[in-house]
Write a structure and sequence with these properties.
Elements: H1 20-28, E1 33-34, H2 37-44, E2 57-59, H3 64-77, E3 81-84, E4 101-104, E5 120-124, H4 129-137, E6 141-142, H5 155-160, H6 168-171, E7 178-184, E8 190-193, H7 206-210, E9 219-226, E10 228-229, E11 233-241, H8 244-257, E12 261-267, H9 269-279, E13 291-299, H10 304-313, E14 319-322, H11 325-336, H12 338-345, E15 349-354, H13 357-373, E16 378-384, E17 389-395, H14 403-414, H15 433-437, H16 439-452, E18 468-469, E19 475-476
Parallel strand pairs: 2-4, 3-4
Antiparallel strand pairs: 1-2, 5-9, 6-10, 7-8, 7-9, 11-13, 11-14, 12-13, 12-16, 15-17, 16-17, 18-19
Helix pairs in contact: 1-3, 8-10, 9-12, 13-14
Length: 485
């Protein structure tokens, strides 16, 4: 019998993920696709040191066009993306969970001309806050947003997290500063609304949806930022008080008698002691206190007398005022130095919550015993009194032990607060989102996510957990991309 011809062997299809570095190099250049572990390591862990994993690669596009093509090719290869700005995040939202491509936006650092008539400027997502401040101030304008991480944090990241900072008391968070933005969606398409029009209600406000979405709905490439005329005169005070209630009364008095008040931050005696030791300096105050406030007024005229008179009228007698740059910086260093001092003492669990001012005294009293009962050895708190934002830092708990974190988040909710005030949800608090927002909101968020990113390509696991428990108990298991095994 004649033999049947043997079938030709089926050619094995190449894994598209394996060819991805070469394909991305065609877009951004070989020097901007990193696969060597020694080169990718600096992108793979967040600022706390608690979150991160190995990335498939790091790609560094130079502009929105390159980024759009990078997203298209990652989507074709089935490789998910973690967008990353200055990598100053504290909740694991800008670092990989294992095997994603990190898209670094640091090269998107072009700042356009300042439009002084409108008080606006368009800047790339990789522009640092410090660079934006410098560019604006050369034209007599001010971005009116500030953080201790100003030299590292980037515009795209702070908009993606709707960050706030010390000056939110007067100027709000990032959201009201955004007059428009440009972003790349999960399919590589680009949405752009950079005209900066104050009145433009044509259809849904997609830029507003992307603010605070933490890179899960689109990757911000450029931002149209609202500026304000720069005020030249500032005065800063450090005040010692005997209770949170006294601090709240002082804030109420200052709102009425010091209209130039811009910032009102607080910290406790534990933080003061730690910062003084770390900075090797003495307290500028005469006495120790239960609560310390750093206040700042800003105006076209010197607000020093206004601030001093307001403090005297409120009975805040143990206070130090400074109206020169060096003196003001020295007082602010006591508050902004907390992060470095805490990190020097150990790897902290950093929690960013919001609590109504009426419940703040209760919250601060209950945090230490609550956290200690769950395994934390030391608790240091500071924050922004004017907007109820409390940064809770826990030392002594193992990095992977979340019991103390959960206990503090639960306490914040019991006090009528929120689990995230400015750092975002990331992966650290994704399991808490249903508890904080409820099942109806969570379903709506998932519907929006599925509509804009049906393949789960953008920052999977951030904000919306991959296995998200509902507030009523049973787990809601979303579709998980095939790359997660």
């Amino acid at each position: 019998m004649p033999r049947r011809p043997r079938a030709a062997p089926t050619a094995r299809r190449p894994d598209p993920a394996l060819s991805l570095p070469r394909e991305l190099a065609e877009v951004v250049g070989e020097g901007h696709v990193l696969t060597d572990p020694e080169l990718t390591a600096g992108y793979e862990r967040d600022w706390t040191g608690r979150f991160g994993a190995r990335a498939a690669l790091v790609v560094r596009p130079a502009d929105g066009g390159e980024l759009a093509e990078v997203v298209r090719r990652c989507a074709a290869a089935g490789v998910p993306i973690v967008p990353q700005g200055g990598n100053t995040g504290l909740v694991g939202g800008g670092v990989p969970r294992g095997g994603e491509a990190i898209v670094s936006l640091r090269r998107l650092d072009v700042i356009g001309p300042v439009d002084a008539a409108l008080g606006q400027v368009t800047a790339g997502a990789g522009v640092t806050l410090a660079a934006l401040q410098e560019a604006a101030r050369r034209h007599g304008e001010d971005p009116t947003l500030d953080f201790a991480a100003r030299d590292s944090c980037t515009l795209g990241g702070l908009v993606a997290c709707d960050a706030g900072g010390a000056r939110a008391l007067r100027h709000g968070t990032a959201r009201p500063h955004v007059a428009g933005l440009e972003a790349v969606l999960a399919d590589g398409s680009v949405v752009s609304r950079l005209q900066g029009l104050t009145k433009d209600n044509a259809g849904y406000d997609l830029p507003a949806l992307l603010i605070g979405s933490e890179g899960t709905l689109g990757i911000i490439t450029r931002v149209r930022w609202r500026l304000a005329p720069m005020v030249p005169a500032r005065a800063t005070a450090l005040v010692a008080l005997d209770s949170v209630a006294a601090a709240a009364r002082l804030l109420a008095s200052l709102r009425d008698s010091a209209p130039t008040l811009e910032s009102c931050d607080f910290f406790g005696p534990e933080g003061m002691s730690l910062v003084l030791s770390h900075q090797r300096r003495r307290s500028p105050l005469r006495t120790d206190a239960a609560v310390y406030l750093v206040l700042e007024c800003a105006g076209r005229r010197d607000p020093t007398d206004e601030l001093a008179a307001a403090l005297d009228a409120a009975g805040a007698h143990d206070a130090v005022l400074a109206d020169d740059a060096a003196g003001r910086a020295g007082l602010w260093a006591l508050r902004e130095g907390h992060a470095d001092a805490i990190n020097a003492a150990g790897i902290p669990h950093k929690l960013d919550v919001g609590v109504p001012l009426s419940e703040l005294e209760r919250f601060l009293a209950e945090v230490p015993p609550t956290a200690a009962a769950a395994g934390a050895e030391r608790v240091i708190v500071f924050g922004h009194l004017g907007d109820g934002n409390v940064h809770v830092n826990l030392l002594g708990a193992p990095a992977e032990d979340r019991r103390a974190d959960d206990a503090v988040l639960e306490l914040a909710l019991r006090c009528g607060g929120t689990i995230s005030a400015e750092h975002g949800i990331g992966v650290a608090k994704a399991d808490w989102l249903a508890r904080a927002r409820g099942d109806a909101e969570l379903r709506a968020m998932r519907a929006v996510k599925h509509a804009l990113d049906p393949g789960g390509l953008l920052n999977p696991g951030a904000v919306l957990a991959l296995d998200q428990p509902s507030s009523s108990g049973p787990n809601v298991r979303p579709a998980v991309s095939s790359w997660i095994q």
